[in-house]
Structures are given as structure tokens and as C-alpha cells.
């Protein structure tokens, strides 16, 4: 489950992303916090070009308690029982850096310049993002679930969320709620996505394997102002191949 902010087209497409991932290579498959960025439309992961967490240069850690690539503590949601959630935000602040906010504080950032030590960009320390990309703002925000399998495009058995179909609803299927954005004119004030000028859209890459229910909107609620459910069991679903 993740949040994405992006801008740019073609090879100049740039993003900042964050969320939780479950992968056997990190923490034996336990839910793990991740951050990611790309400056080149995912064509290459390398220092100051793009990549996960601190595996490449680019991420500047600020928090002393919450780190990317560490297990998310506080328990997991239980089917038909207690539901857990993780609050995540991505914000470009006045310092020009793209900060990632988790739970109750900013944990780190992708810097304006290719350095965690200076905010002065020059020939030796150039800008990280381009002017047509993420240097000054994003153009698109997205919230979604994603699965990966080395055997793609063959169908995968990887569950999305709990593995329950989206229509299973609350306390069974995974969900994302309380999606907000700030515009260049409204920042630092955020508003629910249904109230922000622009185009709202939904999509499922392979609806025979995974599903989506929603979105729903209730601007009068501060807990569930907007939401959608998502999930599925991959090739365990009828017709998924």
C-alpha cells in the first residue's frame, strides 16, 4: 500500500513514493516501511537517480525513531477484529525538500540538492529533480496497492492486502482512507481529494486477479472523509491467469 506524488513525462517522469511493503527480502516478510524516488521514469536505480530507502544516495534521514526498511510496529489488523492503520504523507515544504511524514512526525526527506548537507545547489551539488519534474511541485497524487512477482506476466499468487476481495468490506479487505492534497495556492492547508480541483480516477490493472470497491466520500467525517477497499488473492481468484 502506498502513496505516490509524480510529475513529468517520458524519461523525465519523476516521483516520490512511500508506504508499506511485505517482501521476504526485508524483515522476513513483515510489514515494512519504505520510501522510493525516481528521476528517470524508473529506468535506472543508482545514487542520486532513484531507488529504495538508503540503498542508494538520495534519502536524507531525520527521525531518530522511525526509519525506512524497518518493521512497522503496533500490531497488524485482524480479520473481523481490530483494524490497524499507518498514516503517511508526502509534502514539499518551504525548504524545497520533499518530506515524508509517518504517524506523527517527519522522518526524512528527498533534498532539493544532491546532498543532505547543504541546501545550496550549484555545479558541484546540482538539483535532484528537474524543473519539468518534481523540483517545484507534483502534478499527480495517487494511492494504491501493488504486487510484484519475478514470473510476471504470468499470474502471481501474491495477496494484495489481506488477500480478501475488496467487496468483503471493512474488517476483511484492505483499505485506504483520508486521502488529502494541497495545491500550490492552498498549501499549507490540505483538503480532501474530492474537494480539490482536478480529475479523480480509479483503475484496476488486472480485475480478474485483484479488485477495487469505491471510492466513497463523506466530507462531513474527519475519520472516513473518503475511502476505497482493495484486495484479492491473485491466481487464487477465478479467471486469473
Provide keyphrases for this structure.
four-stranded antiparallel beta sheet; 28% strand; 0% helix; five-stranded antiparallel beta sheet; mainly beta; 14 strands; 241 residues; 2 domains; globular; single chain
Q: What is the topological layout?
A:
Elements: E1 2-7, E2 14-21, E3 32-38, E4 50-52, E5 60-61, E6 88-92, E7 98-102, E8 105-110, E9 140-144, E10 174-177, E11 180-181, E12 191-192, E13 211-217, E14 226-231
Q: Please give the share of residues in helix.
A: under 10%
This entry's quaternary arrangement is single chain
Strand content: 25-35%
Q: Helix and strand string, N-terminal first?
A: EEEEEEEEEEEEEE
Count of alpha/pi helices: 0
The N- to C-terminal Cα distance equals 23 Å
Number of domains: 2
Largest sheet: 5 strands, antiparallel
Radius of gyration: 18 Å
Would you kindly provide a brief summary of this structure?
The chain has 241 residues and is mostly beta strands.
Explain the overall architecture.
The chain has 241 residues and is mainly β. It has two domains: 1-144, no CATH class; 155-241, no CATH class. Helices cover 0% and strands 28% of the residues. The chain is built from no helices and 14 strands. The strands form four sheets. A five-stranded antiparallel β-sheet has the order 4-3-2-1-9, with no helix packed on it. A hairpin with a 5-residue loop joins β6 (88-92) and β7 (98-102). It is globular. The two termini are 23 Å apart.
Amino acid at each position: 500500500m502506498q502513496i505516490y506524488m509524480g510529475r513529468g513525462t517520458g524519461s523525465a517522469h519523476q516521483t516520490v513514493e512511500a508506504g508499506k511493503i511485505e517482501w521476504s527480502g526485508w524483515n522476513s516478510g513483515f510489514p515494512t516501511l519504505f520510501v522510493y524516488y525516481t528521476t528517470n521514469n524508473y529506468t535506472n536505480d543508482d545514487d542520486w537517480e532513484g531507488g529504495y530507502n538508503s540503498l542508494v544516495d538520495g534519502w536524507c534521514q531525520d527521525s531518530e525513531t522511525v526509519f525506512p526498511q524497518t518493521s512497522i510496529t503496533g500490531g497488524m489488523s485482524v480479520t473481523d477484529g481490530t483494524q490497524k492503520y499507518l498514516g503517511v504523507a508526502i509534502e514539499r515544504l518551504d525548504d524545497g525538500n520533499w518530506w515524508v511524514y509517518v504517524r506523527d512526525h517527519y522522518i526524512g526527506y528527498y533534498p532539493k540538492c544532491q546532498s543532505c548537507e547543504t541546501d545550496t545547489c550549484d555545479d558541484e551539488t546540482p538539483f535532484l529533480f528537474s524543473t519539468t519534474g518534481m523540483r517545484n511541485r507534483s502534478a499527480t497524487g495517487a494511492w494504491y496497492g501493488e504486487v510484484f512477482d519475478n514470473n510476471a506476466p504470468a499470474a502471481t499468487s501474491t495477496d494484495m492486502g489481506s488477500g480478501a476481495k475488496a467487496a468483503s468490506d471493512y474488517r476483511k479487505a484492505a483499505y485506504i482512507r483520508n486521502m488529502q492534497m494541497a495545491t500550490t495556492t492552498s498549501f499549507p492547508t490540505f483538503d480532501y481529494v474530492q474537494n480539490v480541483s482536478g480529475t479523480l480516477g480509479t483503475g484496476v490493472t488486472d480485475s480478474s486477479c485483484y479488485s477495487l470497491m469505491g471510492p466513497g466520500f463523506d466530507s462531513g467525517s474527519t475519520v472516513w472523509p473518503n475511502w476505497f477497499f482493495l484486495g484479492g488473492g491473485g491466481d487464487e481468484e477465478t479467471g486469473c491467469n
